[in-house]
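3.2 Worked example (two chains)
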Amino acid sequence: MKSHAQAVIIGGGVVGCSVLYHLAKAGWTDIVLVERAELTSGSTWHAAGGFHTLNGDPNVAKLQQYTVELYREIEALSGVSCGLHLTGGVMLAGTPERMDWLKMAHAKGRYLGMHTEIISAAEAKRLMPLVDESRFVGAMYDPLEGHLDPYGTTHAYAQSAKLKGAQIVLRNRVVDTVQRPDGTWDVVTEKGTIHAEHVVNAGGLWARECGRMAGLELPVLAMEHMYLLTEDMPEVAEINAATGKEVITALDFEGEIYTRQERGGMLLGTYEKAGKPWSETETPWDFGQDLLEPDLDRIAPSLEVGFEHFPAYQKAGIRRIINGPFTFAPDGNPLVGPVRGLKNYWVACGVMAGFSQGGGVGLALSNWMVHGDPGFDVWAMDVARHGDWATLATTNARVKENYSRRFRIRFPNEELVAGRPLRTTPLYDRLKADNAVMGESYGGEYPLWFAPKGAEPKDVFSFRRSNSFGPVGDECRTVRERVGIVETSGYAKYEATGPAAEAFLSTVLAGKMPAQGRISLTPMLNPRGKLIGDFTVGRLGPERFLVIGSGPAEQYHMRWFLQHAPAAGVRIKPLGSRLQGLSIAGPRARELLQGLVRRDLSTETFPFLSIATMDVGPVPAIVGRISFTGDLGYEIWVEPDCHRALFEALWRAGQAYGIGHFGLRALNSLRLEKSFGTWAREYRPIYGPVEAGLSRFIRWSDPTFIGAEAAQMEKSSGGALRLVTFAVDARDADCIGDEPIWRDRQVVGWITSGGYAHAARASVAMGYVPAALAGARDGFEVEIIGERVRATPLAEPLFDPSGSRMRA
């Protein structure tokens, strides 16, 4: 075993071996994988081995597509068979709502280059004869469905890595990871210590325990997962003889089951509602290639539905029941990337669908380690999407919920309930008393919309316009006609102070830094010139800046800030819940606020993009003349113990001006009406500032910021894409994001976000099209739930195109 390595990968499952292979392929050969037992000894060896390309996030779906296409490569290189069975598969819809969901998934696949097909229940029966077609309303066929041999695939990765110079050490448990003062690591094993520049935690079932060695509590939990193997079935033999092929895979959402052929019989697996966690606090190190005790009673409800939907199973004998643990993150997606505050410590864990996602995870992480960037958008997998609020108890509650909902529909207006409420502001009870329907973001509770008095504050889940449509419209009109108030505590807040604060911010941010008492808007770019952030920066003093960004990206952005902060001269810290916020917006916002402050708020003395400290009623506050609604408005920031008093002062004074609540859904409608983009939708690491329409915010004359060279290249070339706002001829369903944009009978782009602009009375959507089409004014369509409707590009925002209201 080596005493020194460029990187040590902990864990010899399919994910660890994929990371090892991709690092070796990228040119790192001084790398070692250390495994406590044998390769595949955790969850990998007992996996069902299925793979598919479907995922709720299109960027993850693309990585899953890459994973499936990778298997031929590693087979050819290693000479080891992956046991690949590319059978194709059907996803079965038992309800109209599920059929709508499949139509939306099929539409996403159009612009990802996938070749799925929406088919009838009769066609699904023809492709998969074991189905009782009377139980279904339709299906989606995917030619890239199938299954493989978990053992062979893992060894194909491992052998391919070894052929490129990587080393694998088996039967040697890592017992500690200790970081040296220079940022390198001592990986302490039972057989000695390896000094490494980088450590990768791909510990699988033991990722949590490996993380604890470095002081981390990673949000992962193992769940028991069962599948059964039938004895040989004559129906299977008949299908094989008639078609000359295997029985294709099938996924039955209503039965919460998946099935495929296994030798002469069938494999049937479940994601039952009554999911059971395994080793909730600590995974035993002596757990090896072991299985858990089967519990047919727990999966009986799913099996009963399965037997109805696949009648031949009623007569089949059970040959074997497999029950083994698999790890999950709270939202079901992997945890990948560098960990904030730990130099060169990387994670690749919580990869429940290892044979669908393992290749993509290995590619993304190797790119990140070698080149400093994953090379594409991996936000949905980034470990930074979970903050310190994702404690052991919260993680366990949410993983259980996610497992039980694995095959259930997640509607666009559906908020999950496990582990809530967790982080609440001083206004939580006050807003609930006013009939707020609360949503969750980054562990915090915030009002989505307000139900009318006497009505139950509850969402009716739907892909179409639901019961919140009318009340949200009222909230939007309150803002546009009078004045509305919304809680903004969910934004991420940072304070940068010190003599080098301006120089630091000028390095990490691509826009100009404001003068004292002023606000500037600025993107943040990675070295490839792509958007990794969108911020409001207010200067409160010569060496003091308040930076406001997207709430869910706080850990993501702090990781970047700390990575690039100088050793001295600046302090950058997240303010989190230590600074709470409210925003007022609308034509009467100034009148309202002027009655509560001593400072003159006229345009001449406190114009648009001003910021200052002042008392608002009895409360010391920071007030910024800015609003995400695109209207006249103010953002007001206070310490938590003054938050309630600030609200009450504004609410009482606002009665004279017709004040009303508005929530995050109304805010989304208002910003779409103004063509304002937002982080994680319009602004992501696959778009450049020119493409996103943010050129006016870039410091082109002083290109010393990160990503400047790449941004200049984009400016010179014009970029490949353009962000466009469309008015959509929608009926009872609006765009929500990820819908394909059509022109001339071809998919030419995709929608990033959409909704209904209530004040303008128009369905609106934002999306990217090729730059060459950005000037076209007709011929576009958007596909909404399987139906293509006309989409008209807008030359200017629906609301206040001149910005006169915003600057009034």
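3.2.1 Second chain
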Amino acid sequence: MTNIDPASRPSADLVEHLARPSDEEVDALDAWWRANNYLTIGQIYLKANPLLREPLASEHIKPRLLGHWGTSPGLSFVYAHASRVIQRTGQQMIYLAGPGHGGPALVAAGYLEGTYTETYPNVTQDEQGLRRLFRQFSAPGGIPSHVSVPTPGSIHEGGELGYVLVHAFGAVMDNPDLIALAVVGDGEAETGPLEGSWKGISFLNPARDGAMLPVLHLNGAKIAGPTVLARKDPAELRSLLEGHGYDVIEVTGDDLPGMHHRFADALAHAWAAIRGIQVDARSGRWDGSRPRWPLIVLRTPKGWTGPEVVDGVQVAGTWRAHQVPLSGVRGNEDHLRVLEEWMRSYGPDELFDENGAPTEQVRRANPTGELRMSATRHANGGLLTRDLDLPDFRNYAVDVSDPGATRAESTRKLGEMMRDIYARNPDSFRLFCPDETNSNRLGAVFEVSDRAFAESVTPDDVSLSRDGRVMEVLSEHNCHGWLEGYTLTGRHGWFATYEAFAMVSASQTIQHSKWLQEAAHLGWREKIPSLNILLTSTAWRNDHNGFSHQGPGLIQNVITQRGSVGRVYLPPDANCLLSVADHCLRSRSYVNVVVIDKQPQLQWLAIDDAVEHCARGAGVWSWAGNDGGDPDIVLACAGDVVTMETVAAAGILRERMPDLRTRVVNVVDLMSLPRRKDHPHGMDEATFTKLFTDDIDVVFAFHGYPGAIHQLVHGRPDADRFRVRGFVEEGTTTTPFDMVVRNRASRYHLVMDALNNARRVPSGADDLTAWCRQRLAQHEAYVVENLEDMPEVRDWTLGDWAETG
């Protein structure tokens, strides 16, 4: 291995050596690749006779043939050559496999490097271990067919097509010594997220960040037909990629050893170009313009080295090679014979010794220690995670002497806290936001960091520079995926977006949750910083954007995840938000969704009360009700706007019907509602009873879809007594109060619900119901005439008890 001086360009001799491998090196590369291909096929087909020490028979074949061969030989070919570069240079590299089902190739790579046996000692490097390796693949009690969580060296689930580049870009941000080699499948390249993610180079800073090297692997076909980019004229494709800003290097063919030489040359020059860009940037020789980072286009046949023709039909190089080229092996002697010939064509006797371990020639292609891509610490980010240097969140508190008396923009206080986190953690914290940082009132971060931008900057631009570390791009997929790659490699951050647009990237949230859920079962996977999602511009306060921007659906997605991962917080004010944010940034391996609006809102709790309230997850606000310990009705709320409506409803009841005993319960941790056995945050039975009783009806005003609360309180005493008001897909461009009216969650609707469901209703209930209906009619006429809410609603504070009457 050559020691690379980080301040010097690679020498011409080193680059030449990398570009022109010796015959001995090519032999080692080819042996490793053949061994990988053999292991890949074995995982797909065999449950016994792993080294073909006896003639292949039907009883050696798995009952179900699962997995994907077509992309695998290309993935392992790239892996072998990347390992050679690492071995010769000491370059830290992580490998991300974008093609959906390349799992067997990457499992085989880890096995050949020895990492798999180190991680799973029962999968030994002998014949018995090979048998286990083959039997476990895509089988009950085994491992998935993707490059998934159990695969050492992986931070990317190959099945989530479209995200390989965003994960790779996120992995190298503030990670200057790392190259993320991201293989993009040509089927994957057709997805919207992938097409948008090429732009990541417009945000990399070569002085501070690592590099992402994409390999666009064009094998011509997806599961049942051709791919768009493979059928494009090569010159047109080159123009497309060059237009994105890349320096394109092309390698095409299937001839051996010629392909080894051509790809070694391409990879050597790509690596040298990356190092040259970084050295210039880190030594003061960078003019600030966006570098033209290298990109390799690799064209190989689908199912390269596999059966050419099966049953008289062309397979290799077509979509038929995508999954299992020989599908009827157990009942078809011809297919069984072809499979055996195919596997023996790789020369297993030359690749594995008499005990079944990889031979010295195969092992010669492996880097050592943590330089092995299957053993890199960057793929087990918890090993690299450092706790954030967090300021005391109490320093940003809003002064609340009386509940509901003053208004503040709650997220602005969080922005101030983020500003100081940026300053104290210059290489381990970032905010990722789709062009909405200022809109979401988080703009204080610009006091210490610009937006990152590697394209040209004009005098009209504000807080925009190549040195910025605030990540803004108008793509939820990019922002979400960058943060995933950032946290998976051990750093911390927030993804902030408008609530409705969180559904654009909701599948990413779900997939990351699944990753964390499975990682929790693997003792060798260290816990990583949580994925923190801040949702603002909520369904209830999109006054000018209208119905398209009104949708709280992400809550519904996250509460269905396992309790080991999913967390949803609905802080009602700034001080609760600060407490929740501090908790989220200290947490590990969760998906934390925090929902709060950015508009000025009433502030309820002093900071110490807020901390206590958030620690409990829910509590009685005795100052808002008058139950005296024995309520006739419980008014519960979760969410900022509906909390205000609930407190206002309680005020109406207290003023106009003081003999009705009303209890107000606010929920800030939504996952405190389920039973303890259903979620670790669930409150115990005694606490639940203390808040909600066992038999008094509960009118629950909820930020999201009403069904979520019914789902969460399932199994609680007499769960049918919970009557939930929430978002019911009624929306338009209208006033804030009109939104709660349209969704029948206003203070007047809550009062009427309370009257209809209270255990004991004093006289006058009919008159109060009529008064509420009158108020709703007045509201409807007023907003149409005046284009704003009635003053008694718009300017209401908790001190306005008398004005409610």
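3.3 Remarks
The chain has three domains: 12-379, 393-602, 617-804.
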